[in-house]
């Protein structure tokens, strides 16, 4: 599928700029910020427990991770499962809804690598 065909499938005809901006703002609200995409990436790489996620993301604080996980759960990007063993086991997993970001995340990683290379050569 060409970019034009993909755009025609997604965008309305005639174009509705307000609708497009609102859709972009909704996306940025849900996955925006410094930590959400790294958290999704960590979960997709197999980290399920709080400490494992925390250790896999340099610079994130315990408080920030806790806040972001709660917000992501509210937006149905991840599922929190509590197993009442002794000690209690809490695990986080991405939802199918979150996995729908997979192609977007891969494209962002690809673009980020190209960008980093571009600014190194300047």
Automatic annotation (TrEMBL):
Q: Which UniProt keywords apply?
A: DNA-binding, Transcription, Transcription regulation
- Which classification does the entry list for the species? Bacteria, Pseudomonadati, Bacteroidota, Sphingobacteriia, Sphingobacteriales
Q: Where is the HTH hxlR-type domain?
A: 22-120
Stored PANTHER family: TRANSCRIPTIONAL REGULATOR, TRANSCRIPTIONAL REGULATOR, MARR FAMILY
Q: Which InterPro entries does this UniProt record tie to the protein?
A: HTH_HxlR, WH-like_DNA-bd_sf, WH_DNA-bd_sf
GO-annotated molecular function? DNA binding
What is the designated name of this protein?
DNA-binding transcriptional regulator, HxlR family
Pfam families reported in the protein's UniProt record: HxlR
Q: Which Gene3D superfamilies match?
A: Winged helix-like DNA-binding domain superfamily/Winged helix DNA-binding domain (1.10.10.10)
